[in-house]
Write a structure and sequence with these properties.
about 110 residues; alpha+beta; seven-stranded antiparallel beta sheet; 7 strands
């Protein structure tokens, strides 16, 4: 289970995976608009009981999909990805790419 927010906490900056855009759209999240020095983007913050995540989609990014962003000191990338997938009822087939803690673990 999770709650949604528009508050971007400090330390939320580790790209973990790219999530299929259609899969995220099926979740019917309310996204917020913002911009940085690269482009404007849509985002939502998800607070689980264990972790905080963001999903971000730049308006003009070259590849479709939402970047899953985790906290830099919240455990391994694999653990964070598993927590996100469990909270949203998505599975690994919805990930376009993902970070591996151990490059030989593919």
């Amino acid at each position: 289970m999770f709650t949604l927010s528009d508050h971007w906490p400090m330390g939320l900056c580790q790209d973990l995976a790219m999530v299929n855009q259609q899969a995220v759209d099926r979740l019917s999240f309310e996204f917020f608009q913002d911009s940085d020095d690269l482009d404007s983007f849509r985002y939502v913050i998800l607070n689980t009981s264990a972790d905080v995540f963001a999903l971000r989609l730049y308006d003009h990014q070259p590849a479709p999909g939402y970047v899953l962003i985790g906290m830099e000191n919240a455990g391994s990338a694999e653990e964070q990805i598993r927590t996100f997938l469990a909270a949203t009822d998505l599975d690994t087939s919805e990930l376009t790419w993902r970070v591996f803690d151990d490059p030989t673990d593919r």
